[in-house]
């Protein structure tokens, strides 16, 4: 069967709300409008005002209210219309949600999911085009997931809603409408993916490409092209940024001896910087035959004009170029 | 001795309310003795905390509640067992009144294993059932409290969340975001401004275009209360809980009080106010002295009884101080305890790539 990422997220929320009375969703336009990006479509009609709550445009306030509700025993799903607006509320994500369990010596855990579209959309300029993967995965006390496919979206979001700790779910608006082939298992109400486990999307032996979210598609495009010239790239979909499944990356590099990380976020202190650091500061260093390399978004605020925007984000051809360089292939 | 007595409180000021709490209040001897003991306990505990800080046994921040005791004691007196509280960083008195004993508070301040957060929270982060802290971010507790109220309502109880903040935090934007949603959704939350006159060293007049904090909820009804009178606080809280618990939505309560100490231990508290001002409050408005006089003048207690209580309190605090000094800090194995309630990957990086520590689970994780 085919399933879009949007429907996968929608059914994940629907199934978990059906399963657990404590689960509710709040955010801007989640109820009567059916969701700004239609992720919550149909939920208000099904569950009503109590469990599908439209908020005013006050991110700090409703993120705080959602976090307080989680401290007092509910299981909120707090939707940010996009993650860009979470900066208004980041204090509650970090200081209120992520740190309380530790500060209370294990008494008050905060079972909340913060979710929404992350990263660059199309033609929306600098304030609406930013990846928060590095920001949130920096912080102990949070779990951070970044689904790529419909299978990821459904399995990871359901796991996040059932998880007793705060989870940040970084979706991608451009992927919402993309349909993926999925098995019957994925469509089942019991389908859960483990947080903190990466997936090898494509096996290969010459080089390891590590990515999350939409950049997985960038890598798969590149891998396809590379295979035409005899280079078999292994593509790892991280799925989670915290905990980060570095074991899977390491196992792959032991085989390929080459590492490229690919992300749409900025380079400095990014997710790729973390992956490369972990590879070179430990035994991974000795498995490498060439320097590990990052492919990232360009180090600029996102411009509006199409050609400029296209050159701000990594494309498959950029990955191909880097791989050829590393493998010394013309 | 009398078994009860009747007193008049200062008139309450009302905002968007037809009627307010009763200004004639009845006090039983039993309650009187309890309030007196609790206020004395908090006063002595804070004095002990101040001394431990000066001895450099308490580290970091330490904000004392001395002068404000009638606020938490009066409010607690009207709370039901299932009502909740969240407050700001001046949390010691509240922690005690919500059920943590003096050892639990003082040993937390000294960072010892017998502290109520095992020494991991410190002065601003103490928790106990129905008490959600101690929050170190000025104003963050305001929407959190509204969210706790949302949960109480969602779960079908008539519980109320008392959400406290100072006059400084009364100007935070998120208070008004929280009030707006609380009023729209009729959340059972009392937004309580403990107005002690100063946000750090900035007096209310220099920080707030309107210092009538009980009116600043605009469409949210409000009450002004003499926060130095435990009975006035108790009555106003009873009134506010009734209002919230019967589905009428939130309420604002301004309790006017005073802090004797500086903002924190690093502030002598004398550059922005005069010693005379502090002295005058101590002599004319002290919440404990005033209450003691009322008890004695109405024969609710004898001077000897109150002296016995004072001695008992002193003993409890002295013993607690000894424990807070002699108990041990938690072991290094707990450095990586309870970061997550479900840690998934139990490896935690220490300060270098060569130090991999192991996550440990200890606490009860009440929301699992």
UniProtKB/TrEMBL annotation, chain B:
Pfam families to which the protein is assigned, alphabetical: E1_dh
Protein's UniProt keywords contain Transmembrane helix: no
Transit peptide listed as a keyword: yes
GO MF annotations, alphabetized: pyruvate dehydrogenase (acetyl-transferring) activity
InterPro entries attached to this UniProt entry: DH_E1, PDH_E1_Alpha_Subunit, Pyrv_DH_E1_asu_subgrp-y, THDP-binding
Taxonomic superkingdom: Eukaryota
Cofactor: thiamine diphosphate
Listed EC numbers: 1.2.4.1
Keywords: Oxidoreductase, Pyruvate, Thiamine pyrophosphate, Transit peptide
One biological process term in Gene Ontology: pyruvate decarboxylation to acetyl-CoA
Catalytic activity: N(6)-[(R)-lipoyl]-L-lysyl-[protein] + pyruvate + H(+) = N(6)-[(R)-S(8)-acetyldihydrolipoyl]-L-lysyl-[protein] + CO2
PANTHER family: PYRUVATE DEHYDROGENASE E1 COMPONENT SUBUNIT ALPHA, PYRUVATE DEHYDROGENASE E1 COMPONENT, ALPHA SUBUNIT BACTERIAL AND ORGANELLAR
UniProt function note: The pyruvate dehydrogenase complex catalyzes the overall conversion of pyruvate to acetyl-CoA and CO(2).
Protein name: Pyruvate dehydrogenase E1 component subunit alpha
Organism: Daphnia magna
Lineage summary: Eukaryota, Metazoa, Ecdysozoa, Arthropoda, Crustacea
